[in-house]
Amino acid sequence: MQDFLSGLAVAFDPANLMYCLLGVTLGNLVGVLPGIGAIAAISILLPVTFYMDPIAAIIMLAGVYYGAEYGGSIASILLNLPGTASNAITTIDGYPMAKRGDAGLALLTTQVSSFVGGCMGIVAMIALSPLIMQFSLSFGPAEYFATLVLGLVAATVALQGQMLRGLAMVFLGMLLGTIGLDLNSGAARYTFGMAGLLDGLSIVAVAMALFGLPEVIANLGNRAPAGKAVSVTARAMIQNVRKLAACIPSMLRGSAVGGFLGPLPGAGPTIASLMAYSLERSFNRKNPMFGKGAERGVSAPEAANNAAAQTAFIPTMTLGIPGTPTMAIILGALMIHGIAPGPRLVTDNPQLFWGLIASFWVGNLLLLLLNIPLIGLWSKLVSVPRRFLFPVIIALICTGVYGLSNSVFSIWVVIAIGLLGHVLRVMGFSPAPMLIGFVLGPMVEQYFRRAMLISGGDFTYLFETPTSLVLHGLTAAILAWMMLRPIVGWLRRSASQNPDAKNGAGG
C-alpha cells in the first residue's frame, strides 16, 4: 500500500498529470476517428518522448493506449464503425440502440463500463504483478530464453490465427532485428554495405512503417463520403444514469474476463471483448433484444477490453514480454530510455512502476470526466473523413524519423518497410507478429548466447530446471495444438458430410 501511495505522488506531479491528460485526450481522439488506431498514434509519438522524462513519456503513451479504447466505442455506437478492433463487437448492440433513439444510454453505458473495467484491471495488476516478479526473480538465461520463445509462439499464433503465416512473420521480424553490428563479434550483419544500417533498425521506424504507412496506402483510393453520426448531448447521457444499475453484473463479468485474458500473450482487448460478449449472451439467452440493442451487450465487452488494456501491462513490465503489438512499442520505448523491463523493474525503478499504475487510476477518471461533457464535440469529430488526416500522418512520420537520426536515409528505410508492410497486408499477412518478432528476436538471441556461454555450448542447459521444462512444454503444446487443429476440423467436417457412413458400416 505504501508503494502505491508513493506512486500516487508521482502521478499527481504537475508535469506527469499534464502528460497523462494529454495522452488520454489524444488516445480518445484517435479512438473516435476510425482508421488510425492506437498503434499508429503511439508509433508517431515515440520520437517526441526522447526529449521527455521517462516516467512522463510512458504515462503519456499508456494514456494513448487505453484512451483509444474509450474513444473507439463512440464511433462504434454513433457511426457503426469501430474506432479500434476491440470495439467492433460493440457495434452489434450499440448502433441499434443509437438508431432507436437511445444513443445517450448506449454512450453512458460504454463510458461507465470502461471505467469499471479499467479500475478492475488496475486492481488485478496491483495484485498479480508482485507475485509474478517474485517468481521470476529466480530466472536465469535458460528460463528467460524459454519464456521469450513461449511469448513469441503464443502471441504470434493467436494474433495471426494461421500458424505458418504467423511464424513466417515472426521470423521475418527477427531477421530485421539482426540488421546492424553484432555486439559480440563486431561483424556487420545484413547491411549490404550501407553505413546507415550499421546501427540497426529503430523500433520507431519499424513501428511507424508497419502500422502508419500501410493504413494510408490502403485508403488512398477510398473516396467514400463519411457517414452521418447520430446527434447526442451530455444531458441525454446523464438522464439515463438510473438505468445503469441493471448492467452492473455484466460489467463485473466483463471485467473478470478482461482481467484474466489481458496478461495472456496474443489475447489482449480484442479477444477479451469477444469472449465477454459471448459469455454475456449465454447469460441472456431469453433476452429478445440481445443482438438488437441490449445494454448488457454493450457493457460487457467494453468492460472487458478496458480491463484487458490495463492487465496487458503485467507481462510487459514484469517479464519484458509484450503480449500485443502496442505493448511491443511501449516495451521499445522503455528500452530507448535505458529502462530494462523485467523482474527487477520494481526494485530498480519503483517510481516508474507504481507511478504508472497510479496514473491508470487518474487517466481513467479523466477519461470519464472528459467524455460525458464533451460528447457533443466527439459526435461531430466522428464524421470527419479520414483522407483529411492522412497527409498530417505522413508529415508526422517523416518528421519523427528524421528527427531521430538526422538522416534522410531513415526516411527511405521507413518507406521501404512501409511498402513491404502494405504488400504483406494485401497478401493477408498481419504485421503484428512481425513487430513482436523484431522486438523479442534480439532478446532471444541475447539470452541464448548467455546460456551457451555459461554451459560451454551444452544445449541441455536450456532444459535443466523444472521452470524451463514447463515453459518449453507449454510452447510445444501450443505448436502441437495448432498443427492438430486443422486435422481435427477436417475429421469433423468429414463426419458431418457422411452421416450415414457409420450406420452403413454397422448394418
Automatic annotation (TrEMBL):
Positions of the DUF112 domain: 17-435
Domain of life: Bacteria
UniProt keyword Membrane, yes or no: yes
Keyword entries, A-Z: Membrane, Transmembrane, Transmembrane helix
ATP-binding recorded as keyword: no
Transmembrane segments: 16-41, 48-68, 74-92, 104-129, 141-159, 166-184, 190-213, 319-340, 352-376, 388-405, 411-440, 461-484
Pfam families, A to Z: TctA (PF01970)
Name recorded for this polypeptide: Tripartite tricarboxylate transporter permease
Organism of this sequence: [Roseibacterium] beibuensis
Lineage, top ranks: Bacteria, Pseudomonadati, Pseudomonadota, Alphaproteobacteria, Rhodobacterales
